[in-house]
């Protein structure tokens, strides 16, 4: 989403092709943009469809292509862009690590681990995926993380019964 925001802030038109598994997110995003910035309605356009739709967009002569998704799909899109020398940006996630030292504030570390790993239902390219903790605090840190994660109640929105 960052790439979309940056491009729009710079005054560029954006064509957004969301995953074929979640097409409504793109449609909603474009509708929200149009209602928030009516003077620039249509600057963000959503195109939905299967992978072949994305392939067609990559071959359409766009000035730059930003991709978020799996490394395997990124390689395919990058190959198409290489054929036309289209600048390409890939966000493929990572194995984002958190290091907890022996003198760390364990409550703050546990809070950061739980938030970093579980915010946005864990679906973020910068979420905590692995934790390296000093041996002497490992067990206590694990207990604190388990306690915090164990009381979370996911839901569509924050209510007295959910955490978000």
Note the main attributes of this structure.
164 residues, alpha/beta, 2 domains, two-stranded parallel ribbon, two-stranded parallel sheet, 6 helices, 6 strands, 45% helix, 13% strand, globular, oxidoreductase activity, acting on the aldehyde or oxo group of donors, NAD or NADP as acceptor, oxidoreductase, Aldehyde_DH_dom
Provide a quick synopsis of the model.
By secondary structure, the protein is α/β, with parallel strands linked by helices. The chain has helices spanning 2-9, 23-36, 51-58, 71-84, 106-118, 135-150, and strands spanning 14-16, 44-46, 65-68, 88-91, 97-100, 130-133.
Shape: globular
- Number of distinct beta strands: 6
- Quaternary state, please? single chain
The whole-number mean of residue pLDDT values reads 90
Question: H/E element string?
Answer: HEHEHEHEEHEH
Largest beta-sheet details: 2 strands, parallel
Question: How much is the radius of gyration in Å?
Answer: 20 Å
Helix content: 40-55%
Count of DSSP helices?
Answer: 6
Question: By helix and strand content, what is the structural category?
Answer: alpha/beta
Distance between the termini: 19 Å
Strand order of the largest sheet: 1-2
How large is the share of residues in beta strands? 5-15%
State the low-pLDDT regions, or none.
none
Number of domains: 2
């Amino acid at each position: 989403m960052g790439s979309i925001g940056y491009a729009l802030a710079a005054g560029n038109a954006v064509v957004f092709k969301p995953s074929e598994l979640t097409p409504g997110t793109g449609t909603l995003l474009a509708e929200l943009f149009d209602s928030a910035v009516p003077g620039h309605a249509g600057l963000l356009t959503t195109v939905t469809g299967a992978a072949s739709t994305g392939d067609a967009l990559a071959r359409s002569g766009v000035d730059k292509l930003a991709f978020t998704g799996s490394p395997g799909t990124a390689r395919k899109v990058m190959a198409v862009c290489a054929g036309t020398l289209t600048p390409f940006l890939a966000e493929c996630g990572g194995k984002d690590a958190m290091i907890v030292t022996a003198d760390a504030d364990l409550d703050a570390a546990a809070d950061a681990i739980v938030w970093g790993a579980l915010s946005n239902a864990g679906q973020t390219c910068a979420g905590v995926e692995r934790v390296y903790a000093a041996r002497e605090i490992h067990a206590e840190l694990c207990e604190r993380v388990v306690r915090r994660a164990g009381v979370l109640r996911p839901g569509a929105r924050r209510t007295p019964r959910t955490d978000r």
